[in-house]
Amino acid sequence: MPLQRSLYPWYVVGVLMLAFVLSFADRYILGLLTIALQRDLGLTPTQLSLLIGPGFVIPFVLAGLPIARLADRYSRRRIIILSLLFWSLATLGCAFARDFSQLLLMRALVGAGEAALAPAAYSLIVDYFAPERRASALSTFSVGTYAGSGLAFTLGGAIIAYTAKAPATADWQSWQLVFMSLGLCGLLLSPLLLSLREPPRAAQHQALPLAALRTQLWQRRRVLLHHHLGFALLSLAGSAAVAWVPAYFIHSFGWPPGRFGLAYGGIIALCGSAGLLCAGALADRAWRSGQRDAALRLAGNAALGSATLGLLYLLMPDARLSLLMMLPSAFLSAMPFGLAVASLQELMPATMRAQASALYALITNLVGLGLGPLAVTWLSHQLFGDEQALGKALLTVIGSTQLLAAICLHSGRKAYREALEHRAAPT
Q: Max alpha carbon distance in the chain (Å)?
């Protein structure tokens, strides 16, 4: 397949990244709205953890693999457009929820809709770029994870700060306006996706049968275990942080949600995006020099840094010092995630890349969003139970999972090199 060499492939990455930004904004916005939802809808911490975690991730998981099989066979562009419209309407619907059950239903629809985006987008991007450029392209796309989280907090913070001073908005609560704004942004983006072209792929309309898919996965079981478990643990740490760091900071330092959202969102968007782009550039450079396991090595080193230097913000006695220490934390914790996708794509044949990405997303989201917020809630109430309980729970969950992830990723490097050599060997 002739690879595109114009700027158009980067245009595709940019447009898909905007969709990814909105998906993560919709996914993580609840972290800033916990206090407002407790006040207006009477939600408990456990209910909030269910909305952030299992209420989103179970539909996400159930929809992911079936949609990914469609993406390996049919138009990925159309699947992405329909996905964006579906989850944006569901996000808009969150604004009209009147109790826990209604909000849970809308969150489930958001999860099901977002399941299609990443697998289809990963597969689309890989078909536009040569192997030595894919880490940069996929890391640029993955900037959406941190830019989206940053957008959630900055936009949400700005709306909360504005509504606190604007009596004219009294008919709508701040959290309702946040959901409306994000849902409308998604609807406005959908026409731009129509400008994307579907690139040719190696085996057009020939997705592997399920039996062949199982065989391919079983042959790579050793490296996939290290890969998926390592990045799932990092996802758990990240989900725990995004879900409960806002509440920790607001309670510990007394900042209003609007002020904190603006500061935290800027840090996540800028430093997280910088970490992703830096990791992608380093990985591509290492690939060109023949270091085939560089993605796992860099990800493991970043996880180790996050488990040490990256947690100092939870130990600071002052709000400004805590925000200052969030800068290296956001940079280091972001670095692995573009590498996760790039390293996985190199292992898989073209006819199963979307399905492999969906399986990866299934596992990382099930572990990350499914367990991360709930683990913090359980530890803070059952194990610690004092005024500093939330900070201690965050420190325990994030630090332990990042350290285990570093061990897992480094121990999988040999298996990863062997899997690449086996795939490259003539048959």
A: 71
